[in-house]
Amino acid sequence: MSCIWTIARREFNSTFNSPIAYIAVSVFLVVTGLMFFFGLAGGDDFFEAREATLRPFFSAAPWVLAVILPAVTMRLIAEEKKSGTIELLVTMPVRDVDIVLGKLLGAMGVLVVALALTLVFPLVVWSVGSPDLGAIIGGYLGLLFVGTAFLAIGLMTSTWSQNQIVAFIVGLLLCTFFWVATDALIKLFFEQSAQSPLQLLNFQSHFQTFAKGVVDTRDLIYFGSVIGLCVLVSTYSLQSRHWR
Q1: What is the enclosing helix (H) or strand (E) of 88?
Q2: What DSSP designation does 161 have?
Q3: CA–CA separation, 169 vs 70, rounded Å?
Q4: pTM above 0.85, yes or no
Q5: How far apart are CA 206 and CA 145, in angstroms?
Q6: Residues 150, 65: contact at Cβ < 8 Å?
Q7: Which residue in 10, 64, 132, 244 is deepest, having the highest Cβ count within 10 Å?
Q8: Is pLDDT of 133 > 80?
Q9: pLDDT (tens digit, 9 = 90+) per residue, 16-40?
Q10: In angstroms, how far is CA 72 from the centroid of its own chain?
Q11: Cα–Cα distance, 56 to 53 (Å, whole number)
């Protein structure tokens, strides 16, 4: 376990020693702030609506995370492979799964920092009314799970290529697919009666439950399964170097 935390701290410090983390966090804050306060995503202007709710923020944030988090993860393994430092890392007394988990936890640090900086939004909402505290807590918990799932997907694609741009594009496509495209494909190719069970594959349907202030164990199991599967695939992808 200490190896995982060591790798996580190293990855977190390395990320904030580069401009990637600062750019990603800044873009997240600016875009979600504009969408929340000025309704640039097509919603109501917060200052005109004067409604004590964070729904516009929770609607916009996952879209932004689906774009910026693959940019954070694209370098996690791909850069190590390209520079050759992955060979040094794997010669240390750590398992491949420890490397993957450590990298994921380090990237989660960036996500936590980004979400923590948006806590000013609830403070502004509280200044104009009395929002539903349960919905706020649930929404932030949902963003943490959705964001971690995006990070796990991005980490997985980073193990597939030495090229960071390729890792970013594939990660971006997969994240947006699970966030929105699955819903569109279900409606396009399946009958209405089949849509309900298949909606369980869609990130949005699980996140919306959190945004309502409801923490359902089925949603926790779903996101946990997605993250666990991505960690497993990433681990096997690292181990594939022994197969050649």
Answers
A1: helix 85-90
A2: -
A3: 8
A4: yes
A5: 10
A6: yes
A7: 64
A8: yes
A9: 888 888 999 999 999 998 887 776 5
A10: 10
A11: 8
